[in-house]
């Protein structure tokens, strides 16, 4: 399958929705395209990078220590946006499944674009915030089954 | 600057927001009182108001009544619905007498339309807290899975 074209990947991506073509072009110009082999880390846990990665080709996953897959990423997926927002170290390893290709958008470039233009900053932050809400809500729905309780899982 | 204005300006949501803007919001905020046991936010409601606790405490409980989270003065409630417009995700009730500043979604959203720079700051402040919440939920989920798989 042909790799995703970066400008197209950016244009369709939730994070950059609403941005002008000129802004998307700027992002494309500063992106670094990197190839990975199976088992390579796209993101290493505890790293202090805040760069955002967009997977262009292939697949990547996040696993717990016990080997359970907790997240899947495919072409078009955004990886690492939480660190972009909060500047904290990466919370997990993201591993390439087979060969893959990703565009790395340096945090310094994204932040500069956001600082230079208030409307761009608002847009990107708002887009990311909405996705964070969706993730929290969906984890909340599963939370009752995860929070250890002396009662059974049923509430009746 | 009014008392409410000053209190709001110390809140994380308004960090970095010009004091004139905070005063404007404070002027339009309503201070509401609740008694212990009163519902502050009702699950599945479609409200988008933001609440900031001024005095007292509120709690979220599981079905069995166990407290899962407690919110004290300075805590912000309802920020997710402000951002995504979805229904309230939990019941929050007053633990005892409670006083909160209620800021309508209209107030904040129309201010943000007029001032995208301020909007960016507020969203960024809220997004950072959402990140912390997500990280800690991920950690909890990971730990639970570890326990279950052993």
Give structural notes.
The complex is a heterodimer of chains A (156) and B (150). With 156 residues, chain A is an alpha+beta fold. Chain A has one domain: Jelly Rolls, CATH 2.60.120. Chain A is built from five helices and six strands, in the order H-H-E-E-E-E-E-H-E-H-H. In chain A, strands 1, 2, 3, 4, 5 and 6 form a six-stranded antiparallel β-sheet that branches. In chain A, strand 3 and strand 4 form a beta hairpin. The longest helix of chain A has 29 residues. The termini of chain A are far apart. Chain B has one domain: Jelly Rolls. In chain B, the strands form two sheets. In chain B, strands 1-8-3-6 form a four-stranded antiparallel β-sheet. A four-stranded antiparallel β-sheet of chain B has the order 2-7-4-5, with no helix packed on it. Classes of the chains: A alpha+beta (156), B alpha+beta (150). At the A-B interface, helix 3 and helix 5 of A face helix 3 and helix 5 of B.
- The parts of chain B where pLDDT drops under 50 for at least 5 residues are none
Task: Quickly name the level 1 CATH class of chain A.
Answer: Mainly Beta
The percentage of residues in β strands of chain A lies in 25-35%
Number of helices of chain B: 5
Count of DSSP helices of chain A?
5
The largest β sheet of chain B comes out as: 4 strands, antiparallel
CA gyration radius of chain A, whole angstroms = 17 Å
Q: Which pair has the most extensive contact?
A: A-B, 38 and 39 residues
Strand portion of chain B: 15-25%
Q: Based on helices, strands and strand pairing, what is the structural class of chain A?
A: alpha+beta
Total strand segments of chain A: 6
Under CATH at level 1, the class of chain B stands as Mainly Beta
């Amino acid at each position: 399958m042909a790799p995703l074209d970066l400008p197209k990947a950016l244009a369709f991506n939730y994070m950059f929705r609403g941005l002008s073509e000129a802004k998307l072009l700027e992002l494309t110009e500063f992106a670094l395209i990197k190839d990975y082999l199976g088992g390579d880390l796209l993101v290493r846990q505890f790293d202090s990078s805040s760069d955002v990665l967009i997977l262009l080709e292939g697949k990547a996953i996040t696993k717990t220590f016990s080997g359970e897959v907790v997240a899947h990423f495919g072409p078009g997926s955004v990886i690492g946006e939480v660190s972009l927002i909060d500047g904290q170290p990466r919370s997990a390893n993201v591993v390439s499944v087979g060969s893959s290709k990703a565009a790395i958008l340096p945090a310094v470039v994204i932040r500069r674009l956001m600082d230079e233009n208030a409307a761009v900053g608002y847009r990107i932050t708002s887009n990311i915030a909405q996705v964070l809400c969706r993730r929290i809500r969906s984890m909340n729905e599963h939370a009752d089954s995860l929070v250890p309780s002396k009662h059974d899982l049923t509430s009746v | 600057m009014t008392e409410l204005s000053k209190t709001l300006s110390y809140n994380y949501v308004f960090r970095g927001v010009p004091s004139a803007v905070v005063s404007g919001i404070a002027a339009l905020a309503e201070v509401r009182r609740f008694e212990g046991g009163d519902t502050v936010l009702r699950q599945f409601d479609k409200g988008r108001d933001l609440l900031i606790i001024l005095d007292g405490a509120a709690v979220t409980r599981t079905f069995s009544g166990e407290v899962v989270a407690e919110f004290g003065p300075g805590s912000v409630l309802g920020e997710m619905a402000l951002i995504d417009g979805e229904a309230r995700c939990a019941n929050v009730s007053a633990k005892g007498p409670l006083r909160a500043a209620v800021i309508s979604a209209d107030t904040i959203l129309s201010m943000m339309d007029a001032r995208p720079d301020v909007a960016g700051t507020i969203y960024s402040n809220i997004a950072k807290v959402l990140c912390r919440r997500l990280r800690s939920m991920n950690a909890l989920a990971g730990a639970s899975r570890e326990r279950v798989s052993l």
